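Ticket #4471: complex job returned nothing on first submit. Input attached below:
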Amino acid sequence: MRIVRAAVAGSLESSDALVKVAPNDELEVDIQSTVMGQYGDAITTVVNETLEKLGVTEGFVSVDDKGALDFAIRARVQGAVFRGSDEQPDWSRL
Amino acid sequence: MTETKTTETTQAAQAAPEASTTTPAPPADPAHPAELDALPAFSGWAAKMPYLRDSKAKRRRKVMRSLKEAIIRSGLTDGDTISFHHHFREGDKVILQVVSQLAELGLENLTLASSSLNNCHAGLVEYIRSGVIGRIYTSGMRGELARQISAGGLLQHPVTIHSHGGRAALMETGELKPKVAFLGVSACDEYGNANGFTGRAHCGSLGYARTDAQYAEQVILLTEQIVDYPNTPASIRQDQVDFVVEVDEVGDPSRINVGAVRNTKNPRDLLIARRAAAVMEFGGYFEDGFSMQTGSGGAATATTLYLKDRMERAGIKAAWALGGITGTLASLHEQGLVGRLLDVQSFDAGAAESLATSPAHTEISAAEYASPLAKACCVDELDMVILSALEIDLKFNVNVLTGSDGLMMGASGGHCDTAAGAKLVIVVAPLIRSRIPTVVEKVSTLITPGDNVDVLVTDYGIAVNPRSVGVAERLRAAGLKPTTIGDLYEQALKICGKPRQIERGDEIVGIVRYRDGSVIDTVRNVPSA
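Support reply: We reran it on our side without changes. The output follows.
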């Protein structure tokens, strides 16, 4: 999916994540988390996997995580990308 | 008696103790006993107390024009210990006010001993850096101050973390000997009679301050208002107070019940509280005349509300409650469901108001509350206590000091004191906080030994310590379906994944003292903080 406009999903509540996307020439992913020390690797993996499944190859993606579980991070990344793109997601890949 | 004779008597006493007690040496001259020479002769009724001749001077002799004047008069010097109370919690306005004045006077290397420190004390970092504060004794700390100390390299000496009872014990043994206690009160009279419910800023109980007033060499009261004599009942008394200083503000009582002692509307906390109340009913000690304490933390304070319904339904009343008194407990007291309130610290305006008005709601000092060295303390008579936890491990050991990031972010408080005394110790905590499991293999910092913990209540289930004989059976009989702590641990890991261990440095930034003064654990720095 191609990100054509800036979009946001999620919140900064505890156990949630705020994901922002914006158009960009190449894929840039920025991850901040309150639990970076304990779960940084796990969060990076779930964000990258979700973007890959969505077919996002360019764009700016920032994740501000407040201790969200994997399913919540996945949903917030998907939500932000859907809102920032005009394409329909390929549900079978998700 | 001359010196030589004294020595002889001593030697004789060592050689033959019976002889010395039966035949005391007669005085050299019975008409001129030596002790008379050592005593001063009468030289007028006010010779030693000249202010007594002047009714105005008598009244005003302790009242200083400024904090600076009081500090100078106290004789405080470099390296001394200064003490404070934390009854205003996040609303405290005394500590930074005093420390900035001490800095202005050029004092250095002081030991700051506060009954606790909070987020509002972040400003202390500056005074640690500039050398005004060299050591800290506290029950806990939070926020930026805690982060910077935890990171390491800030303080020359590790912080001493003590429990509330342990602090009183450290004063009793003399390890903690404040040269000056700076105690903030809303109002006092000119002689220094003070309580926490006259004046404008009511903090309620001054229980922790009372121990400081008892053990400090000198006591300076910072008051918002000087009221008519006698300001009774006095928590801090005229015979303990050296100086009184009027200041604009000592604290904001509206900031007492924020942070750790907030009232919760969080449905998860309420679920845990409801379960904890059920554990209280069926744990084996819910009978007429029981006693209890609910600690700080959302779920712990909310438990009182659910317990009330159960007490009314069963027709059971509590003889007394201890704490850490909340407005909710005060209202149960008012309704006759709790006979007496023993209040070392009032958690909100409702509790402070009740302390002021109800004769059966009395203030107790930190030593009376929980000191293992006091001749008796209240925690020893507790039936049930509800406590919080940042971490609890497979052996039921509890950490309430360091967060999952390794930083100090809580307080020892009365945790290990009440756990040691109470018959049924219930720890309430969500299983997961922002992805971080509360149940861990081994706590990062040990505050309360698992030997003293009976039940863990979480939103995912209740676990009973196998050491607590009969409790699991009783809960099962009541239909509560307790599980094991191992099961809760597995559940948490399944949901969150296994957290990576935080990397710690080699510097010891905190020494955790058990309530008897022994070292139960240490806290190492977190370089990444």
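Chain B touches chain A through 14 residues (CB under 8 Å). Closing as resolved unless it happens again.
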